[in-house]
Design goal:
This protein folds into 2 domains: 134 residues, de novo design (two linked rop proteins), CATH 1.20.1440; 121 residues, de novo design (two linked rop proteins), CATH 1.20.1440. It is built from 12 helices and 2 strands. A two-stranded antiparallel ribbon has the order 1-2. Helix 4 packs antiparallel against helix 8, helix 5 packs antiparallel against helix 7 and helix 5 packs across helix 10. The longest helix has 34 residues. The radius of gyration is 21 Å and the shape is flat. It starts with 10 loop residues before the first helix and ends with a helix. 38% of the residues are buried.
């Protein structure tokens, strides 16, 4: 799929606030653009950061899912490289992540279909990763506001997946209709709160970022190493697909992946992001199957379907785990 139309943050704003700034060049005009961009109403600087590449799954039940969902790509920032000053890179990446949430949030205000909910939830995760990686205390204190929106979306997302699975297997979905309606109402309130209160606070705090060093400097390299170590340890478990072990791997992979997405222009991480994303998806599907098995023990027909799905998902998950182990070894050899 061609992603040439993916948004490039901040080119749009540069065109709006004056003459273009050459990539990698920081001058007075560029600093003025950043000050004026912060003062501008956030809605005027929005762009839709959604692109997508299909998830690759081998089995028919996963193929049906592919038709409806794609892995959401973050908004792009032009001109970043290893030597870009960290403060400049951090502000631009944070603005891009805020814009991703804004674009997905605008769609969620119109409709709460599974794809839109998924997009907004992933955008929240990516924004939280950027805040934790780049933010100082004032900015980090706002993480709870992003988490509030993400949690509401997670509740709705789980129910939507449950409804879709039950419907696909000819089961009664009316029993979760009430919970689904409550979750949708909760998300609408959370989106409204985010738009009116939380996003403006975050925009004002975006300048509170770490300023020393460069995007590809020692501090960011150390951060990646610190993310890699827990994943290596989790992957070394005897049975990586045992539910608790798989959960541990998935969380470690998620943290490394979202930091890698932020630092991909400073380090060679494109293949790492692909491997981590595939494993995160496969282990997430496995987790969903484990949850269904626990819920459906008293319904033999549905339990059998969930068990068969779990077996198929386990084969895919094992392949992604093997790829992730090779990735970790490669990253260590390259002295990440």
């Amino acid at each position: 799929m061609d992603h040439s139309d993916a948004p490039v943050a901040p080119r749009d704003a540069r065109q709006r606030f004056g003459r273009p700034v050459a990539r990698g060049v920081v001058d007075a005009d560029h600093l003025e653009w950043r000050r004026r961009a912060l003062a501008q109403d956030s809605s005027e600087r929005g762009f839709d950061g959604r692109g997508g590449v299909p998830r690759r799954q081998e089995h028919a039940d996963h193929a049906r899912r592919i038709q409806r969902e794609t892995v959401t790509r973050p908004g792009q920032v032009a001109g970043l490289r290893a030597r870009t000053p960290l403060r400049i890179a951090a502000e631009q990446l944070l603005h891009a992540r805020v814009a991703d949430v804004r674009g997905a949030g605008a769609r969620a205000a119109r409709r709460l279909d599974p794809k839109t909910v998924h997009d907004l939830r992933v955008a929240c995760r990516r924004l939280r990763a950027a805040v934790k990686l780049f933010g100082k205390k004032r900015l980090k204190r706002l993480d709870g506001r992003i988490e509030h929106l993400q949690d509401a979306l997670g509740e709705l997302r789980d129910l939507q997946l449950q409804q879709r699975w039950l419907s696909r297997h000819g089961a009664d979905v009316h029993r979760i209709a009430g919970a689904l309606a409550k979750a949708e109402a909760h998300v609408r309130r959370a989106v409204a709160l985010w738009t009116r209160r939380s996003e403006p606070l975050l925009i004002r705090a975006v300048t509170r970022v770490r300023g020393r060093g460069s995007l590809g400097g020692h501090r960011m390299r150390k951060r990646l190493r610190n993310r890699l170590a827990p994943l290596e340890e989790a992957l070394a478990q005897r049975d990586p697909l045992e539910p608790a072990a798989a959960h541990r791997i998935r969380i470690a992979a998620k943290k490394l992946r979202y930091d890698a997405e932020l630092l991909r222009d400073a380090f060679r991480l494109s293949s790492a992001i692909e491997v981590l994303s595939a494993m995160q998806t496969a282990l997430g599907d496995l987790h969903d199957s484990d949850v269904r098995l626990e819920r459906l023990r008293a319904q033999p027909r549905l339990a059998r379907a969930a068990r068969a799905e779990r077996l198929r998902g386990a084969a895919q998950a094992r392949r992604t785990v093997r790829r992730a182990r090779k990735l970790c070894s490669k990253l260590r050899q390259e002295q990440l």
